[in-house]
């Protein structure tokens, strides 16, 4: 993160990595630490590096059982956690954003804002879910290929969350 902060301070982008910084980021990316994923993301976007992700084995044969188990696992431990889907991800032209209960405040009561940012923090898209609206399709066809961060937040101190979204061409 110090490398990234230094880039922003001197006005460089992630596409202007020096060979020394690339070596440092590769060491961090392969370190299996908490910051490894961030270094992997920077290297993926800037240089196209791909890293192996080891996911746990799933015991489910039936797709619907797997979906139910995933949603239950995502919501477990926090009764106010929102299960959200962003489909397709990666997206080419359109992205369907759906929020599902439970929420501290029902979707029918409050407006929810959705904002999409580049990895450097530049706002590239902003839209709203009206009260009672749980889903929205947004156009991402005008955006360059890359990784974006989508933030959704209910008005008046309601629930909020982030998800990474990939746009491909």
Summarize the structure.
The protein has 169 residues and is of the alpha+beta class.
Explain what you see:
By secondary structure, the protein is of the alpha+beta class. The protein has 4 helices and 7 strands. A 4-stranded antiparallel sheet has the order 4-3-6-7, with no helix packed on it. The chain has a 3-stranded antiparallel sheet with strand order 1-2-5. Strand 1 and strand 2 form a beta hairpin. Helix 2 packs across helix 3. It is elongated.
What is the strand and helix layout of this fold?
Blueprint: H1 2-10, H2 19-29, H3 36-47, H4 63-75, E1 83-87, E2 94-100, E3 112-118, E4 123-129, E5 135-139, E6 146-154, E7 160-167
Antiparallel strand pairs: 1-2, 2-5, 3-4, 3-6, 6-7
Helix pairs in contact: 2-3
